[in-house]
Design brief:
With 366 residues, the protein is an alpha/beta fold. Helix content is 43%, strand content 14%. Helix 1 packs parallel to helix 11, helix 6 packs parallel to helix 7 and helix 11 packs across helix 13. The radius of gyration is 20 Å and the shape is globular. The two termini are 26 Å apart.
Length: 366
């Protein structure tokens, strides 16, 4: 299994200390997370896209470019690029530039986004979100794969013999399709034989399982081998490990309670009664290393995912370090050994988590 550390650049007061980052401090915090991810042996770092408070993730290509300058190995993911509201020409230019500056480490995860407030901001009707996403995706693909593109559609001005610059560094920039709520995303991914990334965040396993099953069925329909499907999955928000499950729950509860009070769209309302219900019946990863390994393995048995994303956003800086290192030391090696795959592998490459002796002692001591 491969592992992504990701951030939506959420900037809210800390649930325990009340500490609030300035905007610049939060961006620096994200840069440190990405550097830490590479040092610890994570396979990728992802930055989400949101266009309203309390998120500071409105410009992922800029932030990922800064991360590219501070790292050399990890893949750089967009989690996700809200292509349903963006100009494909601008996306093609920005991310092809990032592809060059990162030495070809970019992977784009596209989606309609999870915040309906961005539609009026960019002049898109929410009723047209899926049509908008598909049209913009088809154009982006052409802009990266072809020169002298002539095109006409509904959501931007026509193009006549356009070749965007720069051309991508990679022969083909990988595109994943974010999957959270509709078979329209899985249908689009299957049609083109491209991987999906299940959000696996808010709802019960059955909802995401149905979407993944639909994806595999439609892959076969379009002539692709479903046994070769590449699937990523989220993990219900922040991870939190403790020496025992009870300790982890106690320490994480203030964060869960704060997040539960945050205003949400109707489709984001949690179906879980409380934290314990989410831990037992939802995707959230809170517990001892052993219980978290068991849960990830149980979800993998249902989804068949090769990639898992986790986040430490919202925690204090010391807890971010603690949790990322603990996860890298106790969880990643077990699951990487148990469920090997060749996603992102270079020939002969093996990457082991690297945890400093001092940090390892501190984490072990709790």
């Amino acid at each position: 299994m491969k592992f992504v550390l990701m951030s939506l650049v959420l900037n809210t007061p800390n649930a325990i200390t009340g500490e609030t980052f300035t905007t610049q401090q939060k961006y620096r915090n994200v840069l440190k997370q990405a550097e830490l991810a590479e040092q610890l042996g994570f396979d990728a770092y992802g930055v989400g896209e949101r266009h309203s408070a309390p998120f500071l993730a409105s410009a992922p290509p800029v932030l990922l470019t800064a991360i590219a300058a501070r790292t050399s190995r990890i893949r750089l993911l967009t989690t996700v690029t809200v292509l349903s509201v963006l100009d494909p020409v601008r996306v093609a230019e920005d991310y092809a530039t990032l592809d060059h500056l990162s030495g070809g480490r970019l992977e784009l995860i596209i989606g309609k986004g999870n915040d309906a407030s961005h539609y009026p901001l960019f002049g898109v009707n929410v009723e047209e979100q899926w049509q908008s996403l598909e049209e913009r995706y088809e154009l982006l693909k052409r802009l990266w794969q072809e020169e002298n593109v002539t095109w006409q559609g509904q959501y931007r001005a026509p193009l006549q013999n356009v070749t965007t610059q720069p051309r991508p560094f990679q022969k083909k920039i990988p595109i994943w399709h974010g999957s959270a709520s509709s078979i329209l995303s899985t249908e689009l991914a299957a049609k083109h034989g491209e991987p999906i990334f299940s959000s696996n965040t808010i709802h019960r396993q059955s909802k995401y399982k149905a979407l993944i099953e639909h994806y595999r069925e439609r892959l076969e329909f379009y002539g692709h081998d479903p046994s070769k499907a590449i699937i990523g999955a989220g993990s219900g928000g922040s991870i939190y490990l403790g020496r025992t499950k009870e300790e982890a729950i106690k320490r994480f509860r203030p964060y869960y309670d704060l997040a539960s009070k945050r205003p949400r769209a109707a489709h984001d309302v949690s179906p879980f009664a409380d934290l314990e219900d989410n831990i037992e019946n939802g995707p959230i990863l809170i517990g001892s290393p052993e219980s978290i390994i068991e849960k990830i393995a149980s979800y993998r048995a249902v989804y068949g995912n090769q990639v898992l994303s986790v986040s430490v956003d919202g925690l204090t800086q010391s807890e971010q370090l603690e949790q990322a290192e603990w996860f890298a030391r106790e969880v990643i090696p077990v699951l990487r050994s148990e469920f090997p795959n060749d996603v992102w592998n270079q020939p002969g490459e093996t990457v082991e988590p690297r945890v400093s002796e001092t940090a390892a002692i501190a984490v072990a001591a709790g």
